[in-house]
Give the backbone structure.
Amino acid sequence: MISSTPKIIRLLTVHLLSFRQFVKEYATDLFGAQAIGDKNATEVLAMVQPDQYNFGSAPWFLRAHCTKDVQKQLLGGTDAGFAAYMGCIGVPATDPTRQEYWQRAKKIFGLD
């Protein structure tokens, strides 16, 4: 289970780059404030959209914005961990679409 944790985090992540308030923060962490400068939101988003950066947004968010308790719960691969992570990113874990993805992830990673 632990070896598949990074895959779970990527799979469960709401595409964090769609949350505008985090794009600039993530880009600043990656490239530094000077590189961001006075770029507009579209330009900053373009900087972090390549796969080499895009896929790192989920673990970055988990480390930067979720408590150690949420991180620990998510590692367990449980429904409670999923709900804690969804709460951390500010979305309802009960949303049918999110639940559908979560159920698929559990099946794929043998978490049932």
Residues 1-5, 8-15 have pLDDT under 50 and may be disordered.
